[in-house]
Amino acid sequence: MKKIVFITQRQDKIGKFGENRDNIDVRFFKLFVALKLKPVLVPNNLFILNSLLKILKPTYIILSPGGDPRKKNVRKVIESKLISYSIRNSIPLLGICRGAQTLNIFFGGRLIRIKNHVRKNHEIFGKIVNKNNSVKVNSYHDFGIKKKNLGKGLVCMSQAKDGSVECFKHKKNKILGIMWHPERNKKIKNFDKKILKKYFICN
To answer: What is the pLDDT of residues 23-52, one digit of tens each?
Structure first.
């Protein structure tokens, strides 16, 4: 039986009438298949989220990429609630790119403007990378995190050559943040499967 994962959605204004739409990259479904997860898309509506949490108990939670995590909007409220829910109930949580940035802000960290991280592939180094191997990841973010700016309780697991944090985890809680997009590769990489199964799908 597949385990349920709650995944948040970005919200964009579409068309000349400025219609607000929740959406998610369909490429995520490759990731769900690879990790054997049954997704539940969380709308940017607090009432519906509260209803979902009464009906379903997620096994995992993902904070999706896309958008500015500094904005104070309903998505920020939704994701803050899910982070708190994850901590209270010991539910593994994964933040991808913007989701990782959201986690850092939640724990009191800071973001900085960063160059050469949009539509780039670069090597990462650190605890999650075998010293004998070279691992490259994709990159699509304008804001990054320096090690000194990590939030309380967060531990750096990998960095890029410029010193920006590419992966972190929480010391006590089952929380992982990655700055790259495993879902955007044509095929889910074995490296991503290994990392996510070790630090996210860990129960």
So the answer is: 999 999 999 999 999 999 999 999 999 999
